[in-house]
Amino acid sequence: MARLQYACARRSCAAALAEHAQLLQLLRDDRARLLHEQIKLTNLTLSEEECEQLLDSNNVALFVDNVRAQTAEARRVLRDAEARRSELARAEAALREVRDLFVQLSHLVAQQQEQIDSVEYFALQASEHVESGGQELLRGSVGRRRARKKKIGLVICLASGFFIVLFVLIYT
User: Fold this and answer.
1) Which long-range contacts (CB under 8 A, 24 or more apart) does 141-146 make?
2) Closest to 67 (Cα-Cα) out of 88, 24, 38, 94
3) By the 8 A CB rule, do 63 and 38 touch?
4) Could you count the other beta carbons within 10 Å of the beta carbon of residue 117?
5) How far apart are CA 55 and CA 58, in angstroms?
6) Residue 20 DSSP symbol
7) What is the pLDDT of residue 128?
8) pLDDT tens for residues 19-33?
9) How many CB atoms lie within 10 A of CB 28?
10) How many angstroms separate the most distant Cα atoms in the chain?
């Protein structure tokens, strides 16, 4: 009976070991297939010996380092792109502010255009009045000189007439 149990246990153990060896071989084949696919994806050229060494050592750091380097580069590029985007957003905001200032300025000019026209009209009228006032002052000064000359002439005439009348009265 012990022999029978020993033989059954031995057969079960042998079957389990065979199945385990078969599963290990399937796992190794699957890992080899994945390794070859990864090599194709990364465009690396590795010999079969190097592939076997990688499979035996379970070292996939080659691929991880490659991915880490690519990730670091992608992050750097992303940071640069975000920095450019933020700079462009700031520039765009500044341009919007300048545009808004010009729009406000045009509205203010449009609102004050009537006042500007009125000021211009009154300034032109004032300059015309100053010109005509200057001409009238010139005429007035000329007229005053004539009137003064007439007054002096009239005073002289009256004085000479008075002296003549006085002279006639005294000698008559």
Assistant:
1) none
2) 38
3) yes
4) 10
5) 5
6) H
7) 92
8) 999 998 898 888 878
9) 13
10) 204
pLDDT value at 90 more than 90: yes
- Rg over alpha carbons for the chain, rounded to the nearest Å, is 60
Instruction: Tell me the C-alpha distance between 3 and 8, whole Å.
Output: 9
Alpha carbon 72 to chain centroid distance? 30
Say yes or no to pLDDT of 89 above 90: yes
Distance of CA 97 to the CA centre of its chain: 8
pLDDT tens, 146-168? 989 989 999 999 989 888 888 88
Cα–Cα dist 78/7, whole Å: 67
Tokens in use for 88?
């462009």
Tell me the C-alpha to C-alpha distance, in Å, between residue 129 and each of 103, 116, 120, 133, 166.
Answer: 38, 20, 14, 6, 53
Residue 85 scores a pLDDT above 90? yes
Residue 115's alpha-carbon distances to 112, 118, 123, in angstroms, are: 5, 5, 12
Q: Count how many Cα atoms sit within 13 Å of the Cα of residue 17 in the half-sphere of its side chain.
A: 6
CA dist 46 to 42, 69, 151, Å? 11, 20, 132
